[in-house]
Amino acid sequence: MNRRLIALFAALTLSISFIPASLATDTDDQMVLEMKQHGDGGWIGMTFENAIDDYLPSHLYANNGEENGTSNEGLITVICTSTADPACAKDGYLYDFRAVLPPCVNADQLDCIQSISAKLADGSTSEGTVVRKWNQNYVYPGDPALGIPEGGPQTTWKIPGSNPNGSEEYALTAIINGRTDLRQDGLINKFNGGGIQINLKPIREVTGNYIEPNHYIGDRGAGKGVFQNTVSSDKGCVIAEAGRCALAASFDLNTQFTLKVRLSTQSSRWLHGRLYDPSVTIDDLTGNAKLVTISANPLQVPMVAGWVRWRDLPAAIQAKYPQGAGGTGARNDDFTTSDLANRILRVGMRAAGQEALDDFKLWNPLLADKPMAMRTIWSIKSIGNFDPSIQRCNKKGLSGLVTTNAAVYSDGPPSFDKESQSLNYTVGAPHYDTANKVFNGTYSLIMNAEVARCIYGFGTAPISAKIEIASEDGSPSVAVTTLNQKDGWLRLSANGFHYSTPKIKVKLTEEKPVVVPAPSPMPTMNTPLTSGQAAAKLLKTITCVKGKQVKKMTAIKPSCPKGFKKA
Question: E strand or H helix at 447, and its extent?
C-alpha cells in the first residue's frame, strides 16, 4: 500500500472568534434552521449556508436532459428504484444520483464509511458506533457497471465523551453526487468519479409532528421536476422521519474528529471545507480505490438568512425569481403561479459560487448586515469549478484545499490572473456577528507545491508568497498573513481582516539563486603558485637562483630560500 500523508494546516493559527464551548448553545444552531414559512403571501426567504439537501436521503432519478434555465420547458423527470427500472432505462435519459454512503460491513466494501472517532481532552480516542439508520425506504442498489454507488440510509452515531455539556450523538452524511451521460442506442458511458460532500453534526433525537423528506414529481415552470419535502428541516431537523427528528445541536469546538471513508475512485483534486486545523491522509487500496482520512476541529461560521417582502425587494432581485424559479415553496403552486407578488418562496441555500457572492451583495443590506446565528460546522466538499490555468496543472491525488469562515465564497480553487500574476479568491460575510461585534475573517489555502510551480511556470527554486486583502472599494484591509512550506505543500493563511466581500490575492514569486564564487585560498609566504590560482594584487613575485636552479617565490614579502640569491 502506498501511503501519501498530506498534513494540512498543521502550523496555522486561525484567528477565528470562537464561542467558548460553554457558550455555544444548541439554540445558536437551531436558530439557523428556524426559517418558518410566512402564513400570508408575498415573501421570499433567503439563506446563505451549506445546502439543506446536504442532509437529505439517497435518491436515484432519470430525466430527459431538457433543463432550460428557470423555465425547464420540456423537462421530464422520473424517480427510479434502480438503474434497471424500465421507467428510467430509456434512450435520451440520464441518471442523476445522490448516494448516501452506508457504514462499511466488511473489509472489501467500497463507497462506505469505515469509522468516525473523536480525540478527547485527556488525549484518548473515542470510537463512534451507529445508533440509528434513517429513511431506509429511500435506499437503492448500486450499479458497478455504470459506476453508480449504492444509496444507503442516513445514519446517526454516538461518540462518548466527545461533547462535554452537549449531545454526544451526531448525524453523519458522506455523499457522492453524480450524473451519467445521456443513454443512446441502449448504451450509456460509465460514471467515473463524482463530487463528495461530508457533513458531521451534533443532534438530539426528539419525537413529534415531523414529516419525512419524501421526494415526488411536480410542476416546475413549464416542465416536470423533482420536489423534496423539507418542512422538517425548517423545524431544525438535520434528519427526519415521520414522527421523529434529529434536532440540530452545537459542537464542542475543542474536539478533534477523525473520519475514514473508503471510495472506489479519487473523488476530487480540490476540496473546500468548514474545518479548523485539518489534515487529510489518502491511502491507496486495491485498483483505483482510496481510503480517505480527515481529521479536524469544527469551525464557527455566520449563517445569513431572513425573510423580505416581495414588494420591498429591489428590481435586480425580483428579476432573478420569475415563475418556476427554484426554491422551497410553502405550496406546490408557488412554482407555477404568475401572481408573484403573493407567492411564498424560500430560496438560496448555498454558500459557494459567483451567484452566491453576487446575491449576498444584494441581500446583505436588507438583512441588517449581521447573521441570524453563528453556526458550528464540520464539513468538507469537492470542488468542481476550475479555472483552466488551475485545471491543467492538477496532479494525481489531492491538489489543494481551501477553507474559510466566510458566509459565502468563490466556488473553486483560486483563479489565476495572468496580468497581475496573482491567485484571486473572493469571500463575503456581514461586518458584525450576532453580538454586534466586528466579525474577523479567516482564509487558508493549502496547495501542492508542484501545482503552484506548474501554474506559474516555476523551476525548482524556493517559492515566496505575498497575500493582499482588498476591500470592495480597493482599499487594503489589515490582516495577519503566514506562509509555510513543508513536505511538498504550500500553506498560506490570512486572518483578522474585515468583511463584506473582500478579494484575497496571493502572489507567488520564485527566489533567484545567488551565486557566490568560492574564495581562492590565500597563498602562504614563500609558497610557489599552484596551477590555476590567480595572484592577488598585493602579492609580489621574485626570482631566486642557485647555480643553474631557478625558483620563483610569491608572497606579500617574498624572500629566497636558504642557499638561493635574488636574481
Answer: strand 440-448
